[in-house]
Design a protein that fits this description.
This protein is mainly beta. The chain contains four helices and 21 strands. Helix 3 packs across helix 4.
Length: about 300
């Protein structure tokens, strides 16, 4: 998702496709966007609300609180189905044949079900797979999908021909009008200088509040969930809102690296910073378990 902001205008444009294709969603603002001392200032409630977040302002403490909409916690139960399953339905087969080689997400309602086709587009060989990370309600009538395209493994034998990987799912709903989402192509080379995190390499994990006050040490099941989520995480090339919303996780490694995880309000994504001596780099990650821990209030 990309958000287009222009100083002086009283509207923002939300591009659900990372390449700015398609028709953007227009969100009207009560006041115009302004530039103050080189920084862009937008009305917080409308701006963050357009991304499925809730915003509250404590006038006494002068604190702006931003949290994900409860709808993002409502996952959609779905089932994977083979293309042969819809062969007897002419309308669905026509839709499928028109879209199964295209990259992205297409959908079609048929009776009580919504059918969704997730396509990776053209790939140079076989062996590519599509993994669905999460399907959830981003609004009352909109379902969002987070998925990734995994390349073949290093030692996997594949057919040397152009392929068009896709996966077909369906779910029951009489209210859904729109299905949107992000599909990320996983590039193994993105993690060539990655940090290994497991029970033998971590010295300690600590959770801090936004005021940099330590809240607690992280151990047990939360520690295991973080290690697992980090190992399975992928780098998200899409832009994100540069802000901190939620707590901060610091993992101190035995080799001296400090990994700092921060949230910008997403239920699936986090920012991680690697720091040791002169090595200081940040990544935008898809890591739902870590994102959930950072946004918890316990």
């Amino acid at each position: 998702m990309n958000i287009e902001i222009t100083p002086g205008k009283k509207e923002i444009y939300i591009h659900r496709d990372a390449d700015f294709s398609g028709i953007p969603e227009v969100v009207k603002l009560n006041t115009p966007i302004v530039r103050v001392k080189g920084k862009i200032v937008v009305p917080a409630i409308k701006f963050f609300g357009s991304m499925g977040m809730s915003v509250t302002w404590n006038s006494e403490k002068r604190i702006l609180s931003i949290s994900s909409s409860p709808l993002s916690d409502c996952e959609v139960a779905y089932e994977n189905i083979p293309a042969d399953f819809i062969k007897g339905n002419e309308n669905l087969m026509t839709w499928y044949n028109e879209n199964n080689m295209k990259p992205g997400i297409s959908y079609k309602r048929d009776g009580e079900y919504v059918y969704v086709l997730i396509g990776a587009g053209e790939k140079p060989t076989g062996g590519y797979t599509i993994q669905i990370d999460k399907i959830f309600f981003s609004s009352v009538d909109t379902v969002s999908i987070n998925a990734r395209v995994n390349p073949p493994g290093d030692n996997v034998r594949v057919i040397m021909m152009i392929t068009y990987p896709s996966t077909l799912i369906r779910f029951k709903s009489d209210t859904v009008k729109t299905v949107i989402g992000d599909i990320i192509d996983v590039n193994p080379s993105d993690k060539e200088k990655w940090i290994t995190m497991d029970s033998t390499t971590v010295s300690k994990m600590e959770l801090y509040g936004l005021d940099n006050v330590k809240l607690k040490d992280i151990t047990g099941s939360d520690s295991k969930a973080i290690i697992s989520s980090f190992a399975e995480s992928i780098i998200d090339p899409n832009p994100y809102v540069k802000m901190i919303a939620g707590n901060v996780l610091k993992a101190t490694m035995k080799d001296g690296y400090i990994l700092t995880f921060t949230s910008y309000g997403s239920k699936t994504n986090v920012i991680v910073n690697f720091e040791k001596d002169d090595d200081n780099r940040s990544y935008h990650l898809v890591a739902p378990a870590i994102a959930e821990i950072l946004l918890r209030n316990d």
